[in-house]
Fold these 2 entries.
Entry 1:
Amino acid sequence: MKDTALTGFKIELNSFFALVILNITFGALAMAIGVSFMVTAVLGLAGAQIPLPLRIIAGSFFMICFGLGFMWVLTSARILKGITGVRREYRKQREPVPGEILTGWIVRLMANYRENKKTISWMILICSLGGGTYLVLGILNIIQGITLVEGVLDIWMRVLPFAAAAINLTIGLASLLSGYYLSKFSKTWDRRLEEVERSEDTLKKTLGLDRP
Amino acid sequence: MSGRRTLYEIYWEILVFCKTPRSFTGIINRCDLNSKTGQEYLEFLTAKRYLTTITDGEKTSYVSTAAAGEYITLFSSLYQNLFDKTPGFRL
């Protein structure tokens, strides 16, 4: 068993695990913020002067955010399920790790990636779109905060848009970052899938598996 | 092991598992196969002489041959190379 392969495998397993956990965390955060803002928007607690149709539109938007957050958590949990088994075994395994055990883990991760390849592509797209949307929302919050400063005397009402901006910008940046890393992960594994296809040709030819 | 595996990955799993004699049920359970495909794979590997059968009364077991060792080694080497050659992913 090659040490470099094991080291690479270990780094990758831990990095991907951390990335999925980060996704679950931000998905849960998006859910919580979605619910909180949805209630606030519909009940008009943030400002009674906002007209009802606008509150309904805002409420619907945040309901979608909640739904996306919920989906995000479920999807990430499904991906996580595929790697936690391998990670648990890896942590239990004493070194030196036998080559066959390492190969078995690689095969399992490969199968997990094949199974979730499409989902990961969607996640990358949603991360980019969602991240962009949250960034725009954050910028709008800042503009709202600046324009409110002169008219509103209540300090909390002045601070609120900036607090919302901070939250939205954080989620936006986290989403974009998550999308970037997911895309990096996906490219790495796509290259491996290509490599596996080439390897299969070698296996066929060398061992005569292509002959009837 | 579940998920989408290639034929060669399944062959590898069967051959590694059968390093010690295994029953048909044991193999399909461990390798997460249904009876029909499991039977097809075992027949194929037996025909290619990567597996051989041992009959003990009514009980039939499958065991990997020396030729399977060659396949297992090559497969392991090719898959471990994936983490040697390709620039890996890290946060």
Entry 2:
Amino acid sequence: MTTQYQQRATIAAPAAHIPDANQLALCLGESTQDERTFTVASYQDASGNLYAVASTVTKPIFAEMAGQPLQAPDHARGMDLAAATRAQALLQINGGIATPDVIAVILGDRLESAQDHIQILGLTPIPQDTP
Amino acid sequence: MLNFGLIGRRRSDPLAALIAQLFGNAEQGAFYIPRVVNGVQSLFKDAAGTTPVTADGDPVGKMLDQSPNSINASQSVSAERPVYTLANGLDFLLFDEVDDRMLFPFIAGDADNFVFSIAVTPEVAIDSNPRYFGLVGTGINLQCGYINDSGIIFTRVANTTYNTGSEVVLGNTYVISHIVQNGIPSIRINAVNKNFSAGGDPTANSFFSNTGVLGAGYESTSNKLQGKIHAALFRYGSITESQLSDIDTYFASVAGVTL
């Protein structure tokens, strides 16, 4: 049997757009909890701008839905569709490095590495304290 | 006749035998194997456990506990779900180091007698942040454990961090057991007991969590595992050398490790 999840999407949400990006994730995702997709802005670009990053395998319909007028899904009828639409307008799919004025997405084959996507986005993790 | 039948089944089924051995006296804990177990579905795409994982490449939202305790691991956020992978005859969960992790309810128990075992392949990452692979929380002040770029494994017991020497080559697979017996921590790698060095008294109680985690260190978005988890268990109670050896043998078999 072949998986339906044939692509990997890695998404960089600029810190200022995290709430809207979470509504878009809720709209395009599969779970009522997807409004918690982007949490802490723990990545930065070369200029020090901060981003929250998510990476997941997706079905091909993800890219199709991302380009169409949004509708609240069955699992989130009460979602903020206006916020999701604002985030949708900022989507930049396979457009290269992340910048603070777009929600950059690297969409590739499911076997591609999230870390390779993050390098394409030009992001690095902010060093973390260790216990 | 019934007893003979059970004994025969356990002898022919090493997983059932190991679970009976470790949890047969109502010991607390959980046992995770990311694959179909004895014909029974153990992985689901959603956290509610309604849609079975059926193919290599499916995300995993729920993994059933194989012990009698039903401490199932789950992930309700789509993007944080690891990917079930079947490669070269081995089943494992693949974690992307970005956001993937599986959570399970932490159950407090005997802080002085505990084991956390895992078959894990930590991969080389793009940054120097440590790769955490598992955690249990506040109730026993135990965190196990993480691997840094130098292949050093760290764990923490009662606010003290312990570390090994450089034991792990990133990209290779290991069976690692963090053991606390009578309050004394030790570590075992591929069936060999290793020396621990105590290091400092960190004040990072905030790293602790009441949620058990596989594939990450604690309840934050950082310090995730890039790599594979083939099997994991935690269990309260005293444990014998024979039981540890049986864990090593079974975990090695499902992870393709030669002991």
